[in-house]
Batch of 2 targets.
Target 1
Amino acid sequence: STQGVSSAASDVYKRQDENSIKLNITLEGIDKEDLDIHIEKNILIIKAEKEISSETSHSKRSFVQKMLIPKNADRADITAQFEDNVLVVTIPKNTENKPEVQQIIIQ
């Protein structure tokens, strides 16, 4: 029997404008159930793992993409859609310009 690990991703495309960051990832042979997307500290982690078994071989397709989430990202509104082998992750940016330092007025 042969064993192997192959990458599931064939294409990763990142597009950014003033309102959002969009990640388009083409994942061949992956189902929605094989995907795991989560945020650890300030890092968006996209994982895909699929076991592929046949009578003669057993292999695993896996993919990991990590991306640092910018400080101006609106973490609560990050969305992901998976359709026709393409995963689209949208990271909206906080368009209100919140200053890093906020002055507290003393009454």
Target 2
Amino acid sequence: VVKALGYTTIVITSRPDIKGEIFRENVKKIYGNKPDYVYMTKEKSAILKERKSVLFFGDSDSDIKESREANVWAIRIRRSDDDPYRGNYNPGKYGEWILPFLDGHD
């Protein structure tokens, strides 16, 4: 849908660029993104500004905060109830819309 409207999808992850080419190729296979549109950086707000982004999906508080810093509309992706990592995760903390797509969520 977004491509039909003229938008480009990018992937930004704060994971370190260890075996980055493998990660980029997997993203390309799964989502169809060109590897050039996969960013591995903790400076997400800078990429969002540089790419003139209008919408950002993220799961962590820092994702939502960086989106706000870049003046980009953020949507929170809920983590699985089984996800053991709960740090940096407080859905609704910034008044953002929350995407409840997993079974067992509100």
